[in-house]
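Lab meeting minutes (informal)
Scribe: AK
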Amino acid sequence: MHFSWQDIPRQLAVPLLKGSVGRLHLVSMANLALELTHSVDTQQALHLLDIASGLLTAAWEADPLDPVVAGQLLSVQNVRPFLPQASLKLAKLFAAMPPAPENLKELHACLAARDTPVTLRYLDARRREEPHNLFWLRQGIMVALVEGRHDWLERWITRDDSLPRPIRDALLGDVYFARSGYREAAEFYRKALRYLPVPTWRERLGESCYRMGLRDEALTQWDAVLVLRPWHTNLLLRRDDVRRERDNAGELPEGRGMVLLYTWNKAEYLDMTLRSLAASNLGDTNILVLDNGCTDATPGVLDTWEDRLASRVRRVTLPCNIGAPAARNWLLSLPETRACDWVAFLDDDAMVPPDWLRLFGRAMREYPDHPVYGCRVVSHHDAMTVQSADLHLDPGGPSGAADGIESGGEPAHIRRFFVSGIHHQVLDFGQFSYMRPCVSVTGCCHLFRRRALDAVGPFDLRFSPSQYDDLEHDVRFVLAGHLPLYQGHLQVRHMRCSGRATWTDAVQLMASWANLFKLQTRYTAEEYETVRAVEHKALLEDMLGRCDA
């Protein structure tokens, strides 16, 4: 497929540059491309139709058992045939499957309770009652992969005689990938590809090869995918970084630095965090911990680590919890941090890999003109669940129940932006392992150039106790003309759930909602549009530079 980023309409280029994964995101862009065919000439319309077909096919491949997406795919196929015969046969098969049951209250209750054994028993019972309704298998795949119940899922898949062989092999490839059994995963993907040349499976085969150390084979597989999908943003970024060996760790960040933590009543997790820091390559970097009024065993944990690491660890003890923004500012105001060239903030329940600082160092040398550098954060219990990646701002609009607030059918208010959540739509098969600019990076683990911090000022105390203070600070950077840099080759494991998973706590929900409302009105609609325009320009320039190279 011929493809040029400058030739596609800006309305489509903006979301596509943010990412090309996630079933909902892909379907949304496919629908947009189809709408745009009515406002361009015939040649452009055919090109957009090709892109829409590819986006819908990728959405179907992300969840091939979904009858709705399979039906959408067939609708486009009827207008302009493009599917290989084998794929067309499977799409027709799954499009004819029974829809989701009408009453799903019991399933929703199981999922909300996060009681995995109960949920699996419920799914087992439903599947015995409706053995040919693949809706239950779809739910089982997601629950088992997220919760790490790989043996249970493998039994489900291998015992299902109704699954077409290539689908079964690809699903088993996913199971072994989740187990970190990359050699076995590669074999299953190869088997599936012999029956059906699905680009998504080839992409995962490439990622399996990469994780086995077979870099050339990985690049070969990815190149074959990009021939068919030259619009595949995530893979373009991934492939380019690996080709240029930018995925490897570099030297430690230049100059004097310090690791900063603030903690409140997480003694067990703090101990794990400090253990991961002690096992990492810190060079001559020291650690400064602010005890934010802890009343648990935290003082004893800090005593232990001060003994183990001697002068490498220092603490500041406060009599009460002053919240995250004030704790950050307190640490940044100390003479030893003022003298630093850079500082890295780390949550008290986040575990870093041994080369984390060297990966930040690599990003700082590859992209030297950025004020803050972030990373890819995954669940500590399941590394395939991405809690945060590169964050972008989508246009605003009415908000209400979709944000967790019941509003009687009326919008609670008009939002000036939404935070893009593409990474929440997929499990991590390597799609977010790349470097590039973005609007914001997670505050769970991020590194600042000290001079940049001094230029934009401290964290805003209005976002206490902890929600959205990091996002507001990053927006301030962008308005000043400097974007954060996402270093997705650095994976940090985070103990705490984030995002919508925290909404079961009413107090936390209200605090989060209040701070989000503050952030929505902190800047004007025009300023948020400026943020989006600045980012789009940077994403496009970064992509064009890679394509030229």
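Next up, CB showed the second protein from the same session:
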Amino acid sequence: MKQKNRILVQIALIVALGGLLMGFDASVISGVIQFIEVEFALTKLELGWAVASLTLTATLAMMVAGPLSDRFGRRTILRYAAILYTLSAIGSAFAPSFIWLVVARMVGGFGVGASLILAPMYIAEMAPPRIRGRLVSFNQLNIVIGISLAFFTNYLILQFAKSDASWAQSFGFNQYNWRWMLGLEALPAILYYLGLFFVPKSPRWLILKGEFEKAKEVMSRFNSEKDTEEVIAQMIEKNNNPGVKKEGKISDLFKPAMRLVLTIGIVVAVLQQITGINSVFFYAPMIFEQSGIGTDASFMQAILVGVVNLVFTLLAMYFIDRLGRKPLLSVGVAGIALSMFLLAFEFNSATYQLTPEKMSQLSSKMEIGGLESLNNIIYESEGEFKVALITNLGKEEFEANKEVLLKTAVSMNSMLILFAILGFVASFAFSIGPVMWVLFSELFPNYIRGIAISFVGLINSGISFVVQWIFPWELEVLGSDVTFLIYGIFAAIGFVFIIKVIPETKGKSLEEIEAQLVK
């Protein structure tokens, strides 16, 4: 049996490499934005678009990936996703303009959307109930590894760019730093495409297509003969039941029998993104720089975010089939709310002051003659400080030097900011990060699983797109404190919903969960 489990784990890891590509593709942009903002002279909304454009097409892909996988198979669509990742990485690296870059990232978004919903679906359809939560969590683990890898390679490329070594100069790390950051993804994307040739078709998809013997052959590779016979018989009985649909339609999702599972799916999909996780992952260096630390330090702290994310995702994988889905959700979402409230408080407590020492730092970057009247004055809010800067410098000069002025003048507890962000990431990684995809793969009936996961995945991705797109604008207009306060309020509301509505699904077969929740 251990040998069978080992084979199943290997297959789950290969399929979940789609998660690694998704995490890398989405987070690598965090190190790119400060370079493309200057190179392409982008506005804040254009900068947000460069980040969120990938999620827009991922949202569109989720509308069709599930139904396409019901027709052609989970494995087949994942192979096409791997091809799209490769094309996107190469296209982004060689982008001659902002439009080209956005189009290339949007191509990758189609791969993101497909792999994000199909990888956990495939794994859930292969895995026995006793380890299903852990195996489905491999997808989130790989997303986390991809995010950490992106943070690390971004930092590494920045260090190579500063190197005087001849090999670093010949590769053009200094001249093409952000292009190297984006282009590296082509390597794991090609490996993913090749690896998918070593995984079988989903047995539950084979059952839907009437290929019972092939389904039995696949299941017997990972289960005992007795368990295989029981599971196959259960699936065939469900498939042959005249009262059960063989193929689902989108309209079936809105029937009264689906009300509970659909409500849970939608709320969890929204909650995972509305609490701001991708704002932190995709803009981590920007957030840390706002606390007054330098560029290198902000990239190092972003790496620390990735490490914490990885460690707590591993803890979630260990506990998800031991404690269950609901306890992890409850503890984690409560931690998200507390962390966001702490961030809001600390950013609200920040002060802004231009001391003679800070004036000296600014003199190498801009003309500071208009700032002399602000010397040693303490401003209690970012808004007050901006008004004073505009009055003394003029709007045009202020806009040209706004970011360097704010970063130089700000005074806050940067260690507390780091602690709160790490607490937020740890809470997310321990709970709604991996648990959402496990729930999605478990809640919906077999005949409509592809369509249902596409639908809730579409909502999840749509919310993610909006959050990423408007985040730079929120920081500029609302301020960091109000932005993080809003995230915390949404998390608190989600905590109440989890306690009152979400059921426990651990240890139950997919057919048992369907019988319990779909009346």
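CB comment: Residues 132-162 form the longest helix (31 residues).
No objections, moving on.
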